[in-house]
Amino acid sequence: MEYKKYFYSLPLLIMFLLFTSLSVYSKENSGVESLRQTSKAFANVAKKVSPSVVFIQVESVKQNIPFTPFQSPFGDDLFKRFFGDSFPDLPSQQQTPTKKRVIGQGSGFVFSTKKRLLSDKSYIITNNHVVENADKIRVTFKDGREFTAKIVGADSKSDIAVLEIKDTSHPALSIGSSANLEVGEWVIAVGNPFGLSHTLTVGVVSAKGRTGLGINDYEDFIQTDAAINPGNSGGPLLNLDGEVIGINTAIFSRSGGYMGVGFAIPIDLVNNIVEQLIENGEVTRGYLGIVIQQLTPELSKAFGLKEHKGILISQIAENSPAEKAGLKAGDLIISYRGRNVTDVGDFRNRVALTSPGSREKLTVIRKGKKKYLTVKIGNLEKVPVSAQAATQTAEELGLVVQSVTSDLAKQFNVKPNQGVIVTDVKSGSIAAMAGIRIGTVILQVDHISINSVAQFKTALEKSKSNKKVLFLISDKGMSQYVVLNWE
Q: Is 233 a catalytic residue?
């Protein structure tokens, strides 16, 4: 009886083992097949986009560059672009000033404007720092064809430039949307690192909306771990459909090479600037006339805010669009053009990309109450340089100041109407390295006593040409002199 039971159960056991083996094999095979499909996707993007990516070589003459056998063929500026200011100046073995022809390099790609490609020319997008001060620009395609390019327009504040060549045989790359990009998505970088033509690297989106890095004046970077190295600048960052979603611009590195942190300008920001450069040769930006700072938990508490959101206005320029609209220092901006405001860099970009003359809605919180204001956006290019210079100098130093009102005097335990109080200090800035911090009171600028932001601006402007300024500061009741030098 036991024998028969075993005899009948044996086929079931064999079928179970066979099914289990097939199931395991199927799962393993499925995993390998999934990897094959991913690999195929990368290969398809490479075939699709490589014919439209260019290797850019730039020739320029630099004055007073002494010869040294250690001189890089790419120039010191390129290495400092990627290595940072800590990269040492190369030693000179010859004291006689000379003129030296310097060769630079980068990447770019063919771009189609709203009017599409013209019948006799193509436009190429790259970074401004790749072609800045160039005497001669050559672009080489993957098929080996080489063309002389000229600059149609360049914008140093966003680090974008547009080149033009006499050719229409190479297709423009498809443009995607960086707004729809999500952290964790696969991305592909194509460029010419270290002169290695048409190199493809793969990674993911590590973060979005990176601002305050000090790379460009207007920042909203996509961070990626796709390998980017010197020579990749200006090349496209692509999604798996082969659409451009960014322009590779810079890396963070302590070694000079890839360390897993690269930055690309999002294509949605690029589109607006490129169209203006092609149409007008320059970029027109919107202007509000305010100094803003990020809202910290301490400031939220000081202003009695229930929610930690928005950005703080610390200063209003005289006769500016902001002043005319009724904005005031101490206002908290929580919405602009119907979208929430959470980041200083993002807000600055949005205002800059707003057409001058347009009327836009702002929502602010003032003394705990919401206010709805309409502002007529000004034109940044038409703002007198003198009105911008002191603010720009303060930005170079890395600080924001405000007149010492009675409220601020109580908050920071200082004397009202005496000096100006520092309400924001950028990490790693000249001011921060000099020991200036939030709450520091600046009493004098180059021996001139100041009691208002206007006086601070005037005094700071006089020091701009010297590239250094002497402050008398008071920190927790202790006064001392500090020199800030931004040469």
A: yes
Rounded to two decimals, the pTM is: 0.66
Respond yes or no: is residue 129 known to be catalytic: yes
159 catalytic, yes or no?
Answer: yes
Q: Which of 158, 206, 233, 403 is catalytic?
A: 233
Active-site residue, from 52, 60, 122, 129 = 129
Fold agreement between 50-89+97-165 and 385-485: no
Q: What is the DSSP letter of 355?
A: P
pLDDT tens column, 40-96: 888 999 899 999 999 999 998 765 544 444 333 344 444 444 444 444 454 444 455
Bridge partner list, 56: 106, 139
Question: Strand, helix or coil at 341?
Answer: coil
Q: What whole-number distance in Å separates Cα of residue 149 and Cα of residue 319?
A: 43
What kind of fold does domain 286-382 have according to CATH?
Answer: Pdz3 Domain (2.30.42)
The active-site residue out of 107, 122, 159, 206 is 159
b/e per residue 251-280 (b: at least 16 CB within 10 A)? bebeeeebeebbbbbbbbbbbebbebbbee
Pairing of strands 136-140, 369-376: unpaired
**Measured distance CA(454)–CA(209) in Å, rounded:** 33
Residue 438 in 3-state DSSP? coil
Q: Are 475 and 431 in contact (CB under 8 A)?
A: no
How many Cβ atoms are within 10 Å of 55's Cβ, its own excluded? 22
Domain spans in the chain, listed from the N-terminal domain onward: 50-89+97-165, 286-382, 385-485
Helix axis angle, 453-463 relative to 385-397, nearest 10°?
A: 80
The partner residues of 448 in beta bridges, in order of sequence, read 445
